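Narrative of accomplishments. A recurring question from our advisory board has been how the design workflow behaves on a single, concrete structure rather than in aggregate. To address it, we present the structure tokens for one chain from the evaluation set, followed by the sequence designed for it. No filtering or post-editing was applied between the two.
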């Protein structure tokens, strides 16, 4: 695809996966860790020793358009980079649902940054069709460890948040 304003080729999702050396993520989409705070002391958490901060690239594509509901113990700040808009669904422990659209159309209310506190269930979904993609980065503090992430069970989340069962049905694997 060519950007008519600059004449440059717009990269495809496959181009971005290859250029950034991304791999499939367990929650959906593609990722690669890009940073861990090696120069700082490790942080003691209830789950063990963690880096003070880690960061990843995270990409949703037309072939993997959903980041399924999951819970992280650490705070995460998301940074939108390029591509199509990504809708985020956040379910707080009290059942409050917040939806946020990340994208580059800030005049339409899209966000370039999104903070998700630890302990909040989070899912994401690409808003456009099969050729679409959305690329973000995430900074996690204390640093991400798979031991601190829980994938959402459709049954369990529907029991916890029955008012959101339709959304949970759509954005969980089972």
């Amino acid at each position: 695809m060519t950007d008519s304003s600059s004449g440059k080729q717009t990269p495809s999702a496959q181009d971005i996966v290859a250029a950034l050396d991304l791999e499939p993520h367990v929650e959906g989409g593609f990722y690669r860790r890009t940073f861990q705070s090696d120069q700082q002391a490790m942080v003691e958490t209830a789950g063990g020793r963690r880096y003070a901060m880690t960061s990843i690239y995270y990409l949703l594509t037309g072939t993997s358009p959903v980041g399924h509901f999951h819970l992280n113990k650490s705070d995460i700040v998301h940074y939108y980079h390029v591509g199509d808009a990504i809708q985020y669904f956040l379910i707080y422990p009290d059942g409050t649902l917040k939806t946020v659209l990340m994208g580059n159309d800030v005049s339409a209310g899209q966000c370039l940054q999104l903070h998700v506190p630890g302990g909040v269930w989070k899912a994401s979904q690409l808003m456009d069709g099969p050729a679409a993609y959305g690329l973000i980065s995430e900074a996690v503090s204390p640093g991400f460890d798979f031991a601190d992430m829980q994938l959402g069970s459709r049954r369990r989340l529907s029991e916890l948040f029955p008012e959101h069962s339709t959304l949970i049905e759509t954005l969980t694997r089972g």
